[in-house]
Design goal:
Number of domains: 1
Distance between the termini: 34 Å
CATH architecture: 3-Layer(aba) Sandwich
Largest sheet: 8 strands, mixed
Radius of gyration: 18 Å
Number of helices: 7
Strand order of the largest sheet: 4-3-2-5-1-6-8-7
Number of strands: 8
Helix content: 25-40%
Strand content: 25-35%
CATH superfamily: Dihydrofolate Reductase, subunit A
Structural class: alpha/beta
Shape: globular
């Protein structure tokens, strides 16, 4: 069974739009104002090496597809060669090699992907897709690289959910210019217990 891993460059106020540039966002490329240091670079390299496939929303996919095919190096080789899945109702002919368009119910499509792959299926950017995955409890790991900046505008990662989503912190570190990396996993069982009636919780604790 594959694992859905969401990884994001994110500002202190939750913005994930265009951290690496390439979009018409006011602060495009804002993550480059900070050094991740050797440890931060290693984190991203190890993450890429352990990726078996990419799962992306259309906007992020099109940005990646425009940038990565012309690049060289280990990152580019891995991104260009591994399977890529893009969730879109409008994209019909993806140009990036090894790309498949997923249409229909997102939750159903992702469940099928998890059965198809054994390793990490990694999501970069893709705010709307991530919100859908979070809503449907399909995220197995959430990695946030938090940069010490407040942008004040831009596309934010988290939107409204129909219910509270509880996570547990499994790793944290600070790298480079005060960039914090937090790794979370869902605490689904803990959330279920908290939502249960007090009498049920008391009985299960005996």
């Amino acid at each position: 069974m594959g694992k859905i891993v969401v990884t994001e460059f994110i500002s202190l106020d939750g913005v994930i739009e265009a951290p690496g540039g390439g979009e018409s966002f006011k602060y495009a490329g804002w993550s480059f104002k900070f050094s991740r240091g050797d440890e931060g670079d290693k984190f991203k390299l190890d993450e890429t090496r352990s990726s078996e496939a990419l799962l992306l929303g259309r906007v992020t996919y099109e940005g990646f597809a425009a940038a990565w095919p012309s690049r060289d190096g280990e990152f580019a080789d891995k991104f260009n060669s591994m399977p890529k899945y893009v969730v879109s109702s409008s994209l019909t002919k993806p140009t990036w090699n090894n790309s498949t368009v997923l249409k229909g119910d997102v939750a159903d499509q992702v469940e099928k992907l998890k059965k198809k792959h054994d390793g990490n299926i990694v999501v970069h950017g893709s705010a709307r897709l991530v919100q859908s995955l979070l809503q449907n409890d399909l995220i197995d790991e959430l990695r946030l690289m938090v940069f010490p900046v407040v942008l004040g505008t831009g596309k934010r990662l988290f939107g409204e959910t129909s219910d509270m989503k509880t996570l547990r912190l499994v790793d944290s570190k600070v790298v480079g210019d005060g960039v914090a990396i937090f790794t979370y996993q869902p605490a689904r069982e803990r959330a279920k217990e908290a939502a249960a009636p007090a009498s049920t919780r008391s009985a299960s604790a005996r």
